[in-house]
Amino acid sequence: MAAEEIGASAESVTGGEPSGSAEVTTSEPSGNWTEGLGEDAQGYVENKGWSGAGQMLDSYRNLEKAMGAPADQIVQIPKDAEDTDGWNSVYSRMGRPETADGYKLSDTPVPDGAIDLTGDLKQWAHEAGLSQTQTAILYDRYNGKLSELVKEQHQQGTEMVQAEEAALKKEWGSAWDENIAAATRFRQRFGIDGETIDKLEGALGLKGVLELTAKIGRGLGEHTMPTGSEEDSGNGLAFGMTPGAAKAKIDELMLDKEFMGQYVDGRPQAVDRMTRLHSLAHPESE
Asked: Which domain holds residue 255?
């Protein structure tokens, strides 16, 4: 019967003449295909303008294609920044552990001199909603950078100590060994251990510690170094006959007419003394 109706329709279009082809159109099955759905669902279908289940299915497929993922893989972002429960749900879907202790981090040792912030970092990461992967990456990067900074600080500290020592050696000149011996005597006399010296050095610097301990040590006696002349031995001076003290003594003698008269006349004692003082004032030329 259906074939006869189609043939009759074709004949009417072509004026009763046979046609090589005929366009056939199909439509959704007749009848109420939403029968059995709730009133709200039927209203939703009508508003969408779906004429059948096939059209509705196509609409859903197109929606998935547009969103790029199935519905169970889609995370809904809360509109309210204060929606704690909503955001916690997002963080959990994104891979945040249930508690801060749930993060699994590498056993990277904390560099000497650094503070272990592992527990704090876990807590901060959890509060920020970071996933396991994100937190592990940040932790490794943090420890790596921390190690670099500690090494740089140690290097800078070493260079600073070397610079201070070189400057003090130049300042003390030939009195260096004498003052170091005095500083060592002070430490031994009062039982000052290395840890205490390190703390003092951290507060005063190497120069400050050596000056302090040498000055006290010289006050304990037994520090005089032979110079060939008792009057130029440095006794009574804070750090002995340093280059600076020797230069000051030379300036003093240059104003002494009696001494300069002897020096100009080539008196051996005056010449030897001036030569000795110049040697103490300029140890680098030795």
From this structure: 230-286
